[in-house]
Design goal:
The chain is mainly alpha-helical and about 180 residues long. It has 8 helices and no strands. The protein is globular and about 55 Å long.
Length: about 180
């Protein structure tokens, strides 16, 4: 189990950092949170013998580190800093026009995501950006699977009702009809 943790820590920094950026909304805070989470994970690696799956356990450590940062430090300052590095969180390859369009879409989605309360944002980030199952999310955030399912449903509903997301859907539909 220790070797498995060591491998995940080596491979998992990027996805953990992206997850923390999406939860916290700030690159510097995300770096600190992930660093703290990795130190905690390594320090408590002996407790892994009682854990059924390592991935949700590690995400729980990352998410808890983000929650700690949200509670302790971030309330004293604005965490939505417009940090340019957050646009690179979902980097894409391709021609410049496609990259620019995807960048705009990604930024709009990130802004809508950060308008969600953290209790809804975390399950969305873990589901769609970290690719965890509902069961693994439940383990990662210490909630029942039914709670995760209802939070995902509510978050998706709020995102769908967000005016900026609705504009994206309208623009995409307009582009499709113009191509036909």
């Amino acid at each position: 189990m220790e070797q498995q943790l060591e491998e995940w820590l080596a491979e998992g920094y990027a996805v953990s950092f992206r997850t923390a950026c999406l939860i916290l909304g700030n690159q510097a805070d995300a770096e600190e949170a992930v660093q703290d989470a990795f130190l905690r994970a390594w320090r408590f690696r002996d407790s892994l013998t009682s854990v059924p799956s390592i991935k949700p356990w590690l995400y729980r450590v990352v998410v808890n580190s983000c929650y700690s940062k949200l509670r302790r430090e971030i309330p004293h300052r604005d965490r939505r800093t417009g940090d340019e590095a957050l646009r690179d969180v979902a980097s894409v390859d391709g021609d410049p026009a496609t990259v620019a369009q995807r960048s705009e879409v990604a930024q709009t989605v990130l802004e809508a995501l950060h308008r969600l309360p953290v209790s809804l944002r975390v399950p969305i980030v873990l589901r769609y950006y970290a690719d965890l199952s509902e069961r693994d999310i439940a383990l990662a955030i210490g909630r029942r699977q039914g709670t995760v399912k209802s939070r995902l449903h509510e978050a998706r509903r709020r995102l769908a009702d967000d005016p900026s997301i609705a504009t994206l859907a309208f623009d995409a539909a307009s582009d499709d009809s113009e191509e036909a």
